[in-house]
Amino acid sequence: AALAAFIKQVLAKEVSDVTLSSRLVNSPVCLVAAAAGPDLALEKILKQSKGGALKAQHVLEINPDHSLIRALAAHLKTDKSVVEDAAHLLLDQARIAEGETPPDPAAFTERLGRLILMGLTAPVTGKSRKKTARKGKKDSGD
After folding, report:
1. pTM (2 decimals)?
2. Which residues of the chain have a pLDDT value below 70?
3. Rounded to an integer, what distance in angstroms lies between the CA atom of residue 94 and that of residue 77?
């Protein structure tokens, strides 16, 4: 819950809420329409039509059982700047999964580069990264 609150604060201008998901299993995040907002599919259709731009804020759902989200929760206590970068990347990841592009590709690549470098320069442990990332059951549609 502390991680969701922190991510909501970081992404306050971009999402209406950040909630813990009970539907996600393999994916760390997804975007859903706000309760009072338009459906994501309708928004895409309007965006593609001539002059139909609908800019609604969405809800970012995070999977509290995903290894990435758990690792971020641990970093929240030690390095909030990493969690800030990751919050923006997770939102962009959710956008990409919806067929969108990140609104600021330059910032996206900078953040991604920083986190990749951090991962490559971190001490190697005996745990297999592949096993950690693949935990969980199959999701339907995520």
Report:
1. 0.76
2. 36-56, 126-142
3. 24
